[in-house]
């Protein structure tokens, strides 16, 4: 089955007729579990395509099943030969990982996805990860170009301006952070202070 | 056989609709999408050639930003307009006492998450106490849509969206105990960690609702609103400057990184301030139409509803937008396209744009005579009465701007008049600029749409029977003079920019722990705001004292309504705007930020402080 992409999010489907309901203000919230599971399933379908990727160790993974589902995660895009913002962003993430210490790999998982998957083979990614002293819990990912592009669009790492969007040196430098089961998502600039990036990630961890 | 992008069978009619929708964006798609997407969209033949484009340009001109590129298509389930009356939000109900009693120092032991003592609680002891719980509630926004789980303010009389209206008087301080009882289970978006901002109170920092001063579920935060005029502890001791009187304030959630989600989910409301001149009684003072019958706050919001949710039509929020979010349903006071029955006389309306990203330009449209011009009077900008009323045919407001208008319905007795937004905006970038965009048919898609082609937001149904109206005619009224402009201690420059999709101010991002600059308490400054983001429009909000716009691109503001006191200034494409500020009476941390809530949630914000000694950073 093909996924509904973020771009055509809501627009291209035949609209189902809504059931008229009486308009009342009810004081007691009824938060049905099935409503939430449906919201979560919609997010999964639109934003987290379960494409096949390979990590820096050459391991085959599925984006949703293996990297996102039931996890607190960070997601960003980069490429190994990028001389613009990528070195700064990756270095910041490495520092953030150090600040978060062994929580990464245990309760937080980091993913960096290559925008030039045809060049960034697992071996290239491995070398890149080692250069930045990335620790366990941080996956550097490559895949089929179409799959990576699908992922980029689904996750909103896009520029409105088509010229900027085509230019990989202008790629979105934000780091997304989220708590998949609780449907909490935010983003901060990859060029923010590593301490602040780390703090923003911890806001995704909720009690209760 | 016709199929949609999912490979599902669709009717021929639907397929044609899909094609038409795609046509307008074809150039964008061709430029921005991969081959696989093009194939999916049916725009690429199997041989790989793009289907021919016929005289359409989705973009203004080569090299420009994509101000004409629609970022979404209307998708909410259909709803019948004007089936429910516009609600008037209830007046917030105070409580006799609070347990435990409010304290100057944060009452951490009792669960308060304030971090700093109240700086003026003893100087301005509260006359009214409120106990407000933020909680989830099932609320109907339209009878043809399912009940929605909104996040609402409950003053003890039940949760409402928007929240209850605070009605306050200058000289009578309030203390609001805000209690966070929001669920962790958010139903799709929203973070149950909040900071309630009173926009734009003359409020000590610890009660302002600074984005990093958030508090968690199961905790509370006491917010002290002195309701005093700026200058009371400095330039105008004991009284404050009457020309700094505020009228319509907007309260909303301001949690760092989550302002858009939490406000969109319902955490918004209005807060009114009256005094001995703006009395709320049309027989006294300025004789403005009497509150509450003829003086009515209207909170505008645009929202999207998901046709695929279960049940269909639940409130939808794009968690992955970096640009801005537009809705295709227009709400006034929490109802989609309501009607409002009015008498044939003058009304004062307080218009509040609650966002998250849309700019409006409101016109009064007579559906039976689209060419008729229907002027009205603007009396206040950002909730602050102007020196005198200004007659206009339309009024533009960006996110978080407030305007007050006087509409005289006596000339419309027995008719229905539409409140129409005719500002053309197709993505988070801001209004379409000029007249260079074209629509799917190749027709001009100008900045201001023709009458009847915009968004009908509300219908006024005007009664035919004449009634008494003791309010003053606006034409010759006078309100407050503009506060005196003095020599600034320093002129600072703030550049609003975008680097690889990262929203920035002077190349930096919000960081709760970084103070960008220090303003000297009781001093005056000029701030120059520069827009270096191409065709984007940013509604820039600076907390605390109101500012005056000295110039737009070195000339006085062209609009008479901008000769006023502001707290949100629209920074338009390629603009340089110079503002005058004073920072009186209180001290502590405040933010400045873009009020496109998606931009502020993605770091287009800076923290500054009012301190005894200011610094001299020119480009902080």
What does this entry look like structurally?
The complex is a heterodimer of chains A (208) and B (620). With 208 residues, chain A is α/β, with parallel strands linked by helices. Chain A has seven helices and seven strands. Chain A has a single domain, classed as Glutaredoxin (3-Layer(aba) Sandwich). In chain A, strands 2-1-5-4-3-6-7 form a seven-stranded mixed beta sheet. The longest helix of chain A is centred in the first third of the chain and has 15 residues, at 33-47. Helices cover 6% and strands 33% of the residues of chain B. The model of chain B is unreliable at 1-8 and 15-65 (pLDDT under 50). Chains A and B meet through helix 1, helix 5, helix 6, strand 7 and helix 7 of A and helix 1, helix 2, helix 3, strand 3 and strand 5 of B.
Which tags fit this structure?
heterodimer; A: alpha/beta; seven-stranded mixed β-sheet; 7 helices; 7 strands; disordered N terminus; B: mainly beta; Immunoglobulin-like; 5 helices; 6% helix; globular
Q: What is the correct CATH architecture of chain A? A: 3-Layer(aba) Sandwich
Strand order of the largest sheet of chain A: 2-1-5-4-3-6-7
CATH topology (level 3) name of chain A: Glutaredoxin
Q: Work out the oligomeric state of the chains in this entry.
A: heterodimer
Q: Give the CATH H-level superfamily of the largest domain in chain B.
A: Cupredoxins -  blue copper proteins
User: How many strand units of chain A?
Assistant: 7
What is the CATH architecture descriptor of the largest domain in chain B?
Sandwich
Biggest β-sheet strands, sense, barrel of chain A: 7 strands, mixed
Which band does the percent of strand residues of chain A land in? 15-25%
Counting structural domains of chain A, the number is 1
Average pLDDT score of chain B: 90
Low-confidence stretches of chain B: 1-8, 15-65
Regarding CATH, which class of the largest domain in chain B?
A: Mainly Beta
What spatial form of chain B do the alpha-carbon principal axes imply? globular
Backbone structural class of chain B:
mainly beta
